[in-house]
Amino acid sequence: MEGMSQDHFSVIYLMLANQPLNSDNELTLFIYDALRFVSAFFIPISQCAPHVYISALPFTPEQSHIATKFSSRFSNTLAITQGKPSQWSMVVFIAKHHKEYVRDMVFSVDERTFASISRRTMYVCDSETGHCISGPFELLNHGEVYNACFSPDGKHILLVFSSYAVVWDIRMGEEQFRIEDYDFAFIHHDGRIASIHWIDEDGNFIQRIASDNSEHEDSTHLQVQFWDASNGTLLSDRLLEMNDIAVTNSSLDGHFLAIGRKSEDVIEL
């Protein structure tokens, strides 16, 4: 319930007052239903408190917990004769922030926030209401985003472009630093960033699009680097001696690196 305003809590408190609830599970379901109620009718309720009873309650789905417990107590209000839904819609909210289609979306680890990314902008929004809590961040000078992920603490977002990654500070609303590498993952237990270089037999970096899984006949090494996620400082290098590499991919928490071989038809973790 983090992020709810005092008005939200006041409405929920008034609804719960003197209402018999038989179990913890029923209480949880009732609170969830009350949050859906507040989210659906936030605008009229915030403008005029009596709208809780005048307009919001009459349009509440018939089988919702709010309607079941309160509709009979406020009978002298509007009555919807037909077309009234029985349950809340599966669509929790509709957010209209972007001026062009959304190319990518990514949720924070705790799922409380999500980032929506178009070619030009990125917004960070609340997952319960869809309200923008940070942004917009302008992306025009970077090119196409190939991947994105939140830091474990949800305070930063890493955006992967064709040849580098940018770390954004959500609270400050600005780009913090960039790393000139290709494949990336946050390591969730300590917040470091891991990046991967493909290196050919002559020791040259192979520039590869992050989403491209094509084979590289001349790649024989991987260089894994670890970065401080707070300031972009390089912490350590690790060179892995490997042949016949077809594809690599990191686990979501950054603990594992999966490597696919070409000649042996095997996967190494």
What does this structure look like?
With 269 residues, this protein is α+β, with helices and mostly antiparallel strands. The protein folds into two domains: 6-73; 104-268, Methylamine Dehydrogenase, Chain H (7 Propeller). 17% of the residues lie in helices and 31% in strands. The protein is built from five helices and 15 strands. The strands form four sheets. It has a four-stranded antiparallel beta sheet with strand order 1-2-3-4, with no helix packed on it. It has a four-stranded antiparallel beta sheet with strand order 5-6-7-8, with no helix packed on it. The chain has a four-stranded antiparallel beta sheet with strand order 9-10-11-12, with no helix packed on it. Helix 1 crosses helix 2 (24-40). The protein is elongated, with a radius of gyration of 25 Å. The model is unreliable at 1-6, 11-17 and 209-217 (pLDDT under 50).
Shape designation: elongated
C-alpha termini separation: 39 Å
Number of domains: 2
| Sequence stretches where pLDDT stays below 50 over 5 or more residues | 1-6, 11-17, 209-217
**String of helices and strands:** HHHHHEEEEEEEEEEEEEEE
